[in-house]
Amino acid sequence: MMWAGGLPGLPMNGFKDHIVILCADIGGSYIDFAVADGAHQLSSRRRRPTPVGSMADFASTLAELAAPYDRGLPLHVAIAGVCDPQTGHTRSANIPCVNDRPLRDALMARLGRPVVIGNDAHCFALAEAMQGAGVGHRIVFGVILGTGVGGGLVIDGRAIVGVGGLAGEWGHGPFIAESADPGAVPALPCQCGQRGCLDTIGGARGIERLYQFFTGRGSDSQAILSDWEAGMDHPRHTMAMWLDRMSAGLAGIVNVTGATIVPVGGGLANRPRLLAALDAAVTSRVLRPGTSPIVVPGYLPADSGLVGASWLTGGPR
After folding, report:
1. Secondary structure in 3-state letters for 71-115
2. What is the number of alpha carbons within 13 Å of residue 311 lying toward its C-beta?
3. I need a surface site. Which of 70, 77, 106, 129 has the fewest CB within 10 A?
4. Are residues 104 and 145 in the same domain?
5. What values do phi and psi take at 234, rounded to 5?
């Protein structure tokens, strides 16, 4: 059997309608496993706890899930971590057993089958580009607004991975300036080592940090958003500042990449009024005129890791 581009990935067109791909979406708590057919439809879904402390147990769990299937079938993996396409090494904050290991090679040796690995945010963007909100768009920038901020860029159906596997990381960089103005967004320290990253304010924990900074009170992000949606005064400044900085970052992404759609996944994607406000702010700031929404909820939030993994092609770009 021939593989596209000579690399483990999708089969050539003459075979694809009869081939399945094994898919795994791996997070810090669970491994979701499924089979994708030639149309990238999922079946035979199963879930196992993720063995985060032992590489041997991690590989054995995937081997057990894949064991019933022919060894000629590839395993495509979406993982919550950064995958360096040059070295094959992976780093994950929530799955320490894979850190600084050539994970793809290790899994190929243990499973005896082709393996392709992609970052989960890249897989989200790929799923939305190929089967979700981005269908019909050449350039799609997928955004994760969950605990933190993530992203992935897809051009002509191919996820752009970049050097070190770090393309799409729009949450990092000193976007927020230091200011003595108590009403300004604070330049908070980020886990990446910089200050003023959008990741420090952008996700659910970021909204909570902003609210604490501006009001001196602690609160859960869902409560803050519910009160803001209800028109209450106390979260108004927090959310105005959040929308200002996040829309500035996303408008820059749209202007640089030419993305015509920005599907959003993660927990904050479940707040339609928040996304509508973010879209209005982004649309007002991009150079390209237009009336169609840019920032939209993803269509495949529950399946994006598995679906996106099924579309991976294996070659770095």
Report:
1. CCCCEEEEECCEECCCCCEEECCCCHHHECEEHHHHHHHHHCCCE
2. 27
3. 70
4. no
5. -65, -30
Are both 191 and 166 inside the same structural domain?
yes
110, burial (CB in 10 Å: exposed 0-12, middle 13-18, buried 19+): middle
* pLDDT tens-digit series, residues 111-154: 999 999 999 999 999 999 999 999 999 999 999 999 999 999 99
**CATH number (domain holding residue 63):** 3.30.420.40
Which token pair is 288? 């390209």
> How far apart (Å, rounded) are the C-alpha atoms in residues 114 and 22?
10
> Which domain, by its residues, includes 260?
133-297
**pLDDT tens string 35-55:** 999 999 999 999 999 999 999
Spatial separation of the C-alpha atoms in residues 169 and 67, rounded to whole Å? 35
Rg value, the chain, Cα: 20
Residue 11: strand pairing partners: 3
